[in-house]
Write a structure and sequence with these properties.
The chain is α+β, with helices and mostly antiparallel strands. It contains three helices and 18 strands. It is elongated. One of its GO terms (cellular component) is external side of plasma membrane.
């Protein structure tokens, strides 16, 4: 009795594996992207199509009948994310398109088109390895990659045999902690280890893809060369800016300290008045002397004309010596 029960269980398992291997179409979708689950039939203008996810409970995804979608039984998880190619249904295309694929979408799907022509699709969701970073600091080389699903594997390799130990840390991230971040470090006990004579490779792999990052002698030399070039350019820029800044500073100091003066004659008093002109040039000595001679000459001429003018009331005539009185006859 016990033997027959065991044989029965084995037959069920084998039947399931046969269906999965020979009857299911495996589809791999990328997390947060669109994906198509294929399904085809003979084609009809009156086609009846239904899609469902076979889990612990029957999850209705989408139904199509009478040339329109029937969404009354649609599960909320697929609302707004599932659709058919309606313009191709008459040609026998009953494929389902899912948008913004999530990890909860993984599972076994059933496409029913009437009769015994049901199709089964096994869907897997992956977040592939997109980038692998490798860097060196002192006697440590670190390799890392982020946002991967399912849990990745990280391996090291070198161009020639060497002894080293590595430490790998795997952490989960994302809103539901579904994505994996992986980081591994190789530490060399000898701090004087020559990193430039070898090539180091770090490979991060999952079931869907793998990527490799390489740290080689060329990478290190290029990094050193780039750092040296950047340093030389910075020094050249600084040296070029110093004279310009000094010239501008000296020019501002000269303008603020020098106050040009011009000498203008004052006709009313015959004296000279100094006036400040910020934007004028100082006249030379010959020009000043010429202006003074002209002013003094004009002043003297005006005074003489005033003194000898007819009808002038000579104030101060009493200051002139009077003429001697004529002698009277005795």
């Amino acid at each position: 009795m016990e033997l027959s029960r065991i044989i029965g269980i084995k037959c069920v398992v084998l039947a399931f594996l046969w269906t999965l291997t020979n009857g299911d179409t495996e589809v791999s979708c990328v997390f947060q992207e669109s994906c198509i689950l294929p399904c085809s039939f003979l084609g009809s203008t009156d086609a009846v199509i239904s899609w469902s996810l076979l889990k612990a409970r029957h999850v209705s995804i989408l139904s199509y009948n009478s040339k329109q979608d029937q969404l009354t039984q649609q599960d909320e998880h697929f609302r707004g994310r599932a659709s058919l190619f309606k313009d191709q249904i008459s040609n026998g295309n009953a494929s389902l398109q899912l948008t913004s694929v999530e990890f909860q979408d993984e599972g076994r799907y059933k496409c029913a088109t009437g009769g015994n022509n049901d199709s089964f699709i096994s869907l897997k969701v992956d977040a592939p390895v997109r980038e692998v970073n490798i860097e060196k600091a002192e006697n440590r080389i670190t390799c890392s990659s982020e946002g991967i699903y399912p849990e990745p594997l990280l391996t090291w390799s070198t161009s020639r045999q060497t002894v080293f130990r590595s430490t790998t840390i795997v952490q989960q991230s994302g809103p539901n902690r579904e994505l994996y971040n992986i980081k591994s470090s190789v530490i060399f006990p000898d701090t004087k280890h020559d990193f430039t004579d070898m090539t180091y490779s770090c490979t991060v792999s999952t079931r869907s893809n793998n990527k490799t990052a390489i740290l080689s002698n060329r990478n290190l030399k290029e990094g050193i060369a780039k750092a040296m070039v950047a340093g030389v350019i910075m020094i050249a820029v600084i040296l070029g800016l110093i004279p310009i800044c000094c010239n501008k500073f000296n020019s501002k100091m000269h303008q603020s300290c020098s106050v040009p003066m011009s000498v203008l004659p004052t006709v009313e008093t015959g004296s000279m008045e100094l006036q400040s002109h910020q934007a004028q040039q100082v006249p030379d000595a010959a020009e000043i002397s010429s202006q003074l001679d002209l002013v003094l000459t004009e002043k003297t001429s005006e005074e003489l004309k005033t003194l000898i003018a007819p009808g002038h009331d000579h104030e101060g005539d009493d200051l002139l010596p009077k003429a001697a009185a004529e002698p009277t006859e005795m």
